[in-house]
Amino acid sequence: MAITHFPLKLVARRMLAPTVAHLTFQRDDGQPLDFIPGQFVQVHFHYADGTATKRSYSLATIHDHALGPGEAVEIAVSYVAGGAATALFEGLPEHGLIDASGPYGRFCLMPADTNQRYLLIGTGTGVTPYRAMLPQLERLIVERGIKVVLLFGARTPVELLYGDEFRAFADKHGEHFRFVPCFSRELPAPGSAQAHADVRHGYVQQFLEEFAPHADTDIAYLCGNPNMVDACFETLKGFGLPVPQVRREKYVSSK
């Protein structure tokens, strides 16, 4: 089956963290890029020697409707020193074009799910799909009364991607949505906006047991660092969650 490529035009960029950029594109061919939250696009380019390569990026776009032509296509990109993809994105001027394909992937909320709670666990840019899922989660909170726990691992407060958005969503939905930032190196300053009761000091896998995963009630999503994904997967299996109730996507940093 042939892969359909399309041009994406850069329309805005902002830094989420010292080494992570939030990039906003539009399709430049007049077509919509509709997708299911949790899916990703691939960006195609060439190394300096002409060899073709590609990178995958989860879509961060928040939408609660079918996307039409000209609507935003958002991704988060980690900059890696000496990386070819980093050079591509850092050197891309406003209105510059990249070659993309997609969307791909099945790391999505499933319409047939009947669970009472979602455990969303992520590190780094692995939290991106959860941002895109927020409208779906809000609808499920209203329709089914689900609860959600988002455990998000970062090294320091400045690396907590979309932290303000997740905190605001948690404040809005009370007991139905808990946002639990886990900082491995540095905690927020006392009295700061990021310092609240659900902040933890350590790695996300250290705190998963605190939320007592249970096969009768929970579906878990794991996205980000492969070591974290593997460790949490083993923990969840130990709590009796069957493999179909643990959905995984590993992010491997590549140059």
UniProtKB/TrEMBL annotation:
Family annotation (Gene3D superfamilies): Nucleotide-binding domain of ferredoxin-NADP reductase (FNR) module, Translation factors
Record-linked Pfam families: FAD_binding_6, NAD_binding_1
Domain FAD-binding FR-type: 3-110
UniProt xrefs under SUPFAM superfamilies: Ferredoxin reductase-like, C-terminal NADP-linked domain, Riboflavin synthase domain-like
Record-linked InterPro entries: Cbr1-like_FAD-bd_dom, FAD-bd_FR_type, Flavoprot_Pyr_Nucl_cyt_Rdtase, FNR_nucleotide-bd, MRET, OxRdtase_FAD/NAD-bd, Riboflavin_synthase-like_b-brl
Cofactor(s) in the UniProt record: [2Fe-2S] cluster
PANTHER family membership: NADH OXIDOREDUCTASE HCR, PROTEIN RFBI
Protein name: Phenol hydroxylase
Organism: Lysobacter helvus
Lineage of origin: Bacteria, Pseudomonadati, Pseudomonadota, Gammaproteobacteria, Lysobacterales
